[in-house]
Amino acid sequence: MGLSVPQAMLIIVVSRILIAGFSTLIAWIGLKWHIGFTVQNRYSWGMRGSFIPLLQRIMLNFIWNAVQFPIEQESGSLKGDVQDFFNLGSLVTGWNGGRLVAVCLTAIWPSYARIPNTFSPNFPTTTEQFVGFVVFWFLSTPFLWLRPEKFKIPFLVVCTWCGVGMLAWMIWALATAKGVGPLWNSGQNVPANSEWNTSWLIMAGINQSIGGLAAGITNGSDFSRYARRRRSYLWGTFGSCLVTGVLVSLIGLVTAAAAQKIYGEVYWNPPDLLMRIMDNGKGSSRSRAGVFFLSAGFAFTAMFENICGNTVAGGIDLAGLFPRYINIRRGAIITFVAAWIVQPWQLINRATTFIAVLSSFSVFLAPIIGIMACDYYILRKRRIRLTHLYRTEMSEYYFTKGFNWRAIPAWLCGWAPTIGGLVVTVRGDARPPRALVELYYMAFLIGFFISGVLFYLLNILFPVADMGQMDPIDVYGTFTLAEARRVGVTPLDDSTIVGEALAKGSSGNDYNFKGKDVEVGVTS
Question: Which of 14, 302, 425, 447 is most solvent-facing, going by the fewest CB within 10 Å?
Fold first, then answer.
């Protein structure tokens, strides 16, 4: 892109603020009602219509579980490169996590880097890379049996390990180079013949940054529903986005700039620089020991990010699609094994257009986020009837044969203006229509607001009956006493349930409380 360091950091800071905001907007639903992505789409799309966003998420989980890595949509993008070097959220996972394992193996056995390639020259990978992927895959397997609510301690360990490693690496690079290289002081260098001025390039960078995490934004409730306190989620989200996210990118830039002064070229991919530090295994034992602990920390971070963000998320989505046959663990295992079906080595080395489309999939996800936000905050005024989320024909969320038709045109219109820009960008047209590319550079915000506004208008013109209703009783024991009071429902308590429900009034729905069939007002 030719942007300067301050401009690249501006993109990172602004995008992190927006990511934290959009994430909280969606995850707040899980914080209050303790429901995940698969369930919360039912009141917006309908019981069957919810499969539309759900299937998109499942497809992404299958593929990104196999290969998730930084993709630059603009060659030479300083902003993209800074984020790529150190990014705990998208650090080389899946197939490329195997590269970090290969670095570890080379640090232990230097001859590993020179292992003969036993594959055919036409096969899109080498024996060294393939073995690294297999080892990475098997090391990840035991963690599939770890419940999502138990992720806290392992994440603290690997994040601390990785964070200390990043700081140590930066300090070593600065001490060895005795300062930063010319990259740090490089000014704006937008080509004179470029059709895009600095403002548009910054807008494109912000859109790319938000879009890269759009899939995680959509299913934020899958994990926020486990939070004990709302402020715990807020501290974690805004702290990781605004503090850790910015610092990690800054540390990556400083390290890459110092390494440029040492080796004479810029390395943006951590495995490449780690291999150069130990001279492909020919370096000293001290350098190999340092590289081992760094690459191991990054590999474990990539492993847990992949398991949490892709494998478990895929398990949750599959459990929502086939609840009778698949639970979260079975779904996670299916998603995990699907890595072999996807064959990431083929995607990375051959299907570059396919990967580029996936990296821009926020074109389709942003409208979903807009519909979710509009429906919950504006139309339903943050009120949901939980019991109707788990019924079929008797549910007010069944709409028309299981579909809320209002969501479908709202979603289609959200990505229709930007799909043309996606096509010409991925296709690499030499001189694409400027209007299409400009729309694409704002795809996330355009999709979010168009779908949200249109969904609101359709609901005003064709109103849904009983919108914004909620159960008078905490039927499933979802809330603590404090939460029940805050939400405004009667806690699930055998001694007071019927009397309090009668005092509040009821719609006459049948419930089952702790094994007792109760129609409010009539006990049996």
Answer: 14
Question: Both tokens of residue 56?
Answer: 């998109």
For residues 139 and 98, give the distance between their C-alpha atoms in angstroms, rounded to a whole number. 10
What pLDDT, on a 0 to 100 scale, did the predictor assign at position 187?
A: 56
Can you tell me the distance from the alpha carbon of 315 to that of 320, in angstroms, rounded to the nearest whole number? Answer: 9
Residue 219 lies in a domain: yes
Q: Return the DSSP state at 502.
A: H
Q: Is the CB of residue 474 less than 8 Å from the CB of residue 489?
A: yes
**Residue 69 above 90 pLDDT?**
no
Give the span between the Cα atoms of 312 and 318, in whole angstroms.
10
- What is the reported pTM? 0.83
In this predicted model, what pLDDT tens digit does every residue of 169-183 receive, in sequence order? 999 999 998 888 777
The CATH number assigned to the domain holding 164 equals 1.10.4160.10
Torsion angle of the four alpha carbons 61, 62, 67, 69, in this order, in degrees rounded to the nearest 10: -20
Has residue 365 got a pLDDT over 80?
A: yes
| pLDDT tens for each residue of 493-515 | 643 554 444 444 444 444 444 44
Final residue of a structural domain among 299, 321, 349: 349
- Write the CA distances from 146 to 102, 297, 329, 470, integer angstroms: 25, 19, 9, 34
269 CB neighbour count, 10 Å cutoff: 17
What is the span of the domain harbouring residue 490?
A: 481-523
Confidence of residue 45 (pLDDT cuts 50, 70, 90): very high
Q: 335, exposed or middle or buried, with CB in 10 Å at 0-12, 13-18, 19+?
A: buried
What dihedral angle (degrees, nearest 10) is formed by the CA atoms of 487, 491, 496, 502?
Answer: 40
